[in-house]
Design goal:
With 291 residues, the protein is of the alpha+beta class. The protein is built from 10 helices and 7 strands.
Length: 291
């Protein structure tokens, strides 16, 4: 899971004057200076490997981008974002252009930029709108739809003020809260796709929550999760390794048929889709404490 936090690059872009009471314009993509890159890394079994921010307390944007580019180029993870195709990745690309940081993984591997492929990058916002067929919703709205709290305490409009006040740690916690909720939406999306079974979904959610409960940096957001709603799912569930049977009535026929959970070819199929990497290399996350 990937999320970035930015402030205006005031050395290259001057914010236009606005009338009192009017909202300031959003900076153009190239004028967003990256101050935090937050990541949550799941392995191929959807288990947490690492949660943290690239570069720790460093505010050197070029170094943040270099560290991030090195990790992605070496480990080849599938990047999962919410609106990353329209914002996070283009900002990373343009700011890398600014600092002369090579991004061969972004330009030489077609799947990362191809919106209809999950290879290299999966933008949940794009997939949940059927690639632009319907209006998009915010991460805050989609998170609350499945039992996550959405924005807690801080929102994106406050980042610049926190940065000017020297409160980088609060921005980092806000960013980590977003990647945690992106992870929750991602697991639910995998269930929606049929890529994991209801039982596997619940197991992945439970395992993730166990690890997140140990991390004080995300305590505010994790403590506000409605766990019953987040774990809720329908369909045949395998509990304790024993298959359950369910009776399905076919409308208009009066015919009933019994199916054994776990034997279907679609609903219970495991795809083994990777969200991380099998490589031995670990993520370069400089954090005060690791999950």
């Amino acid at each position: 899971m990937l999320d970035i936090e930015t402030v205006p690059d005031t050395t290259r872009w001057v914010r236009p004057e606005v009338a009192p009471g009017k909202e300031a314009p959003f900076p153009p993509t190239w004028a967003h200076r990256i101050i935090v890159i937050g990541c949550l890394w799941l392995d191929a079994d959807y288990r947490l490997r690492r949660l943290g921010v690239i570069g720790g307390s460093s505010l050197d944007e070029g170094q943040l981008l270099e560290d991030f580019a090195r990790f992605v180029g070496r480990s080849k993870p599938v990047l999962v974002t919410y609106n990353g195709r329209s914002f996070d990745l283009p900002v990373i690309a343009l700011r890398s252009l600014c600092h002369g940081v090579p991004l061969p993984w972004y330009y030489q591997e077609r799947g990362v930029r191809y919106r209809f492929s999950e290879e290299g990058h999966l933008d949940l916002c794009d997939w949940l709108t059927d690639h632009g067929a319907t209006r998009s919703s915010s991460l805050d709205a989609i998170a609350r739809l499945i039992g996550l709290p959405g924005k807690v305490g801080v929102d994106g409009s406050q980042v610049e003020g926190l940065y000017l006040g020297g409160r980088l740690d609060e921005i980092q916690r806000y960013c980590l809260a977003d990647v945690v909720q992106t992870a929750g939406v991602f697991l639910r999306f995998r269930l929606l796709q049929g890529a994991i079974s209801p039982a596997a979904y619940r197991a992945a959610v439970d395992a993730l929550l166990v690890e997140l409960d140990k991390d004080a940096r995300v305590a505010d957001v994790v403590g506000k999760i409605d766990r019953d709603v987040l774990r809720a799912c329908r369909g045949p569930v395998i509990e304790g390794g024993e298959a359950e049977t369910e009776t399905v009535t076919l409308a208009g026929t009066g015919t009933e048929t019994e199916t054994e959970a776990g034997t279907g070819t679609e609903a219970e199929a495991e795809t083994g889709t990777e969200t991380g990497t099998e490589a031995e290399t670990e993520m370069d996350l400089a954090v005060a404490s690791e999950a």
